[in-house]
């Protein structure tokens, strides 16, 4: 579980290095099943989702 309550913003590059690389190394389904993000602002979630989607697309290609 990752609590992002104190996080006001996150760069897409940081989101990619953390969540995107997890998707690349473990797979999208694994990350969705095993990583729970709580208390995140919408903008933070959006950056994470973009990074994960980009890596998921790269793996599928």
TrEMBL record:
What InterPro entries does the record point to?
DUF4325 (IPR025474)
Q: Which Pfam families match?
A: DUF4325
Which part of the chain is the DUF4325 domain? 2-44
The identity of this protein, by name, is: STAS-like domain-containing protein
């Amino acid at each position: 579980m990752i609590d992002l309550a104190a996080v006001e913003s996150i760069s897409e590059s940081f989101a990619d290095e953390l969540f995107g690389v997890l998707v690349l190394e473990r797979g999208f389904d694994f990350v969705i099943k095993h990583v729970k993000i709580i208390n995140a602002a919408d903008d933070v979630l959006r950056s994470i989702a973009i990074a994960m989607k980009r890596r998921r697309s790269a793996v599928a290609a």
